[in-house]
């Protein structure tokens, strides 16, 4: 019997019918995937999280001031893709210390990550007002239009790097649309650097990133009744310095048919055929400035870590 297709089912049927076959990195983040991403953030090779931490440690007060606005005036701090919120806590502490009046609205598609975040916030920052939102970015953005009062939106960790260039501009325009003059946007961008360091960050020696990528297949086995045998798949990633794109793939090491029991679907794979699962773009400062301008946004502040590995950019409409 064919039951109602879930969003994931529709996405998989559509993405695996394409050439090249594609799945969205958005589906990495089931509860197991969110836990693997937490392990990635602690890897010696994965520099972005440490670099953004360094920015918040060094410039937290200035960033808080840029987002906090006028003292006493209340606002909503919405964070897209909050995850475990470890970095955000530094900013939340700055805002609380500055006596800002605000409600923190973390948005994440992982219910597990969200309940973990809510629990640690209640313990570590009991004075904080939190309204958790378990939704996709798109749904959360729709709500921004009807959100009363001043808004500050966080989009950290170079999540913006996952967007294809064409979608990236659309997304920024969508982010910009509900913003009033006094609202602020803080976006994290991973900057271009030694290509070998970038490549290593997505192909770590312990194989955690490989497990993170392959977990997508485990998710399809569980949720769509697929029969992926993980022994016949490999993680592969490369960095292309001309475009600034890290691209990640799942590689079929032999010819095979994959059955999706839940979808009444069989997908053939040739030997060494790939599924493109993620883009993680790296940026230059002029590129970020041009992107902001194209989206109708003004660069208010541009913060980087000492090594120049990462940038947190304050934008306004
Ligand atoms: C969560 C999107 C910022 O692209 O660097 C890490 C995800 N993928 N290792 C990134 C990821 C492989 C990460 N973001």
TrEMBL record:
The keyword Transferase applies. Residues 9-315 form the Histidine-specific methyltransferase SAM-dependent domain. The keyword Methyltransferase applies. Pfam families: Methyltransf_33 (PF10017). Keywords: Methyltransferase, Transferase. This is L-histidine N(Alpha)-methyltransferase.
């Amino acid at each position: 019997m064919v039951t109602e297709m879930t969003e994931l089912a529709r996405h998989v049927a559509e993405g695996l019918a394409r050439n090249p076959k594609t799945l969205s990195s958005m589906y990495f983040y089931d509860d197991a995937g969110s836990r693997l991403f937490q392990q990635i953030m602690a890897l010696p090779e994965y520099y972005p999280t440490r670099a953004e931490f360094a920015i918040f440690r060094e410039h937290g007060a200035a960033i808080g001031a840029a987002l906090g606005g006028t003292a006493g005036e209340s606002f909503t701090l919405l964070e897209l893709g909050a995850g475990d919120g470890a970095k955000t806590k530094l900013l939340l502490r700055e805002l609380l210390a500055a006596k800002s009046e605000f409600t923190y609205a973390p948005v994440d598609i992982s219910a597990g990550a969200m309940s973990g975040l809510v629990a640690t916030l209640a313990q570590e920052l009991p004075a904080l007002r939190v309204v958790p939102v378990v939704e996709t970015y798109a749904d959360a953005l729709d709500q921004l239009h009807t959100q009363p009062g001043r808004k500050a939106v966080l989009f950290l960790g170079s999540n913006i790097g996952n967007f294809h260039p064409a979608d990236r501009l659309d997304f920024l325009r969508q982010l910009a649309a509900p913003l009033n003059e006094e609202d602020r946007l803080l976006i994290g961008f991973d900057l271009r650097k030694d290509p070998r360091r970038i490549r290593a960050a997505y192909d770590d020696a312990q194989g955690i990133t490989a497990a993170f990528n392959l977990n997508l297949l485990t998710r399809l086995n569980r949720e769509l009744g697929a029969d992926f045998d993980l022994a016949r798949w490999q993680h592969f990633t490369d960095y292309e310095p001309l475009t600034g794109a890290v691209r990640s793939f799942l590689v079929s090491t032999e010819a095979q048919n994959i059955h999706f029991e839940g979808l009444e679907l069989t997908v053939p794979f040739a030997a060494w055929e790939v599924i493109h699962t993620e883009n993680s773009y790296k940026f230059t400062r002029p590129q970020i400035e041009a992107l902001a301008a194209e989206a109708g946004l003004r660069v208010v502040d541009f913060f980087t870590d000492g090594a120049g590995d990462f940038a947190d950019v304050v934008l306004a409409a």
